[in-house]
Amino acid sequence: MATAKTPLERFKQSIAQDNLWIYVLALAAREEICDQDVPRLVFEKFGFLPAKLSVTLVLTHLKKGEYVRTDKREGKKSYIATDKGKNELEDLKNFLAETKEKIEKI
């Protein structure tokens, strides 16, 4: 019988795997990234390894929403955050800071 996840384990999963776009957008805001490098970079920077299909879906949605744009780097498809994407990431940071502040006030 599997043991139930702790609230912290559930939260970590929720904020990591279930919100991959945050990490992909953060990487693309910092520098141009090749799509094939994203799983490795997420693992190196954030400590979890996303599935390639998940990365592809996230990149597709981010591009469709104009949060990233495509380019070519060394002949490979790459992505870089747009101003809209950088603003969205900044809004996320503010939301997280506000949430942290609210929790600390309790």
Key traits:
106 residues; alpha+beta; Arc Repressor Mutant, subunit A; three-stranded antiparallel beta sheet; 3 strands; 61% helix
Could you describe the 3D structure shown?
The chain is of the alpha+beta class and 106 residues long. The chain has one domain (14-105): Winged helix-like DNA-binding domain superfamily/Winged helix DNA-binding domain (Arc Repressor Mutant, subunit A), CATH 1.10.10.10. The chain is built from five helices and three strands. It has helices spanning 7-15, 20-30, 38-46, 52-64, 83-105, and strands at 33-34, 68-73, 76-81. It has a three-stranded antiparallel sheet. The protein is globular. The termini are far apart. The mean pLDDT is 93.
What is the distance, rounded to the nearest whole angstrom, between the alpha carbons of the first and last residues?
36 Å
Low-confidence stretches: none
CATH topology descriptor? Arc Repressor Mutant, subunit A
User: What characteristic shape results from the CA principal axes?
Assistant: globular
Relevant CATH superfamily = Winged helix-like DNA-binding domain superfamily/Winged helix DNA-binding domain
Total DSSP helices: 5
How many strand segments?
A: 3
Question: What would a concise description of this structure say?
Answer:
By secondary structure, the chain is an alpha+beta fold. Helix content is 61%, strand content 13%. A three-stranded antiparallel sheet has the order 1-3-2.
List the helices and strands and how they pair.
Elements: H1 7-15, H2 20-30, E1 33-34, H3 38-46, H4 52-64, E2 68-73, E3 76-81, H5 83-105
Antiparallel strand pairs: 1-3, 2-3
Helix pairs in contact: 2-4, 2-5
